């Protein structure tokens, strides 16, 4: 008798087929390499694109305000451009002093127009606001054209204006405001008045001491 394992079998039965794993598609390794390269490129240029887009959005937001606010936003843009160009901030200077120190072709006109919009009490014409921003753009091109390639790139990608704006906002929030009029950067009439008050007080004390002597 044949063994139990051979019962019911015949010699002509076919052996089971062995399925071999399919070969990997030729394009999968290429896709992996391309994907890794794009990811590395995104990591490298992603922050650069974010900085450029952020500055464009900030400029458009400032420019799209009401005429008087657009002028003040343009002055803020001028200060931020100066910071990105590597110039030192002048928080205790008047606008005219800032314009003289930065020495751009239209800085003096920008300071005068901003002071007029701040102190004159008259409305600002939309054409004046548009002209103001044209002058800001011309001064921006002036800073760029007077620098080499590397310094132009640094100016476009600089984050100094971000830290400058953050520090100015923190200082404004910590300083109590005596009036409802917004205090724009480089508007230090309050500080000037306090210095004048201290000078008058010192003069009165001097006269009193002289009279006593």
User: Count of DSSP E strands?
Assistant: 0
Distance between the termini: 145 Å
Globally, the shape reads elongated
* Arithmetic mean of pLDDT: 76
Main sheet? none
Report the structural category. mainly alpha
- List low-confidence stretches: 169-202
Number of helices: 8
Strand content: under 5%
Quick synopsis:
It contains eight helices and no strands. The chain has 213 residues and is mainly alpha-helical.
List key phrases describing it.
8 helices; elongated; single chain; mainly alpha; 68% helix; 213 residues
Would you kindly provide a written description of the structure presented here, covering whatever features stand out?
By secondary structure, the chain is mostly helical. Helix content is about 70%, strand content about 0%. It is built from eight helices and no strands. The chain is elongated. Mean pLDDT is about 75; it is low at about 170-200.
What's the SSE blueprint?
Elements (H helix, E strand, L loop, with lengths): L26 H37 L3 H18 L10 H8 L4 H13 L6 H20 L3 H9 L2 H15 L14 H24 L1
Helix pairs in contact: 2-4, 2-5, 2-7, 3-4, 4-5
């Amino acid at each position: 008798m044949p063994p139990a394992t051979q019962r019911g079998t015949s010699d002509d039965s076919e052996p089971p087929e062995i399925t071999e794993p399919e070969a990997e598609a030729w394009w999968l390794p290429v896709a992996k390499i391309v994907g890794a390269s794009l990811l590395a490129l995104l990591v490298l240029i992603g922050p650069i694109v974010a900085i450029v887009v952020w500055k464009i959005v900030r400029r458009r937001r400032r420019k799209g305000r009401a005429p008087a606010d657009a002028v003040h936003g343009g002055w803020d843009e001028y200060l931020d451009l100066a910071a990105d160009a590597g110039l030192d901030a002048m928080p205790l200077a008047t606008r005219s002093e800032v314009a003289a120190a930065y020495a751009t072709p239209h800085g003096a006109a920008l300071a005068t127009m901003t002071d007029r919009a701040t102190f004159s009490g008259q409305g600002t014409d939309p054409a004046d606001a548009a002209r103001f921003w044209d002058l800001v753009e011309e001064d921006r091109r002036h800073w760029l054209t007077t620098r080499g390639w590397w310094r132009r790139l640094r100016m476009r990608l600089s984050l100094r204006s971000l830290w400058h704006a953050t520090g100015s906002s923190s200082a404004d929030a910590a300083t109590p405001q005596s009036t409802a009029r917004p205090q724009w950067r480089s508007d230090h009439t309050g500080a000037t008045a306090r210095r004048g008050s201290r000078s008058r007080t010192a003069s009165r004390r001097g006269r009193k001491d002289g009279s006593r002597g």
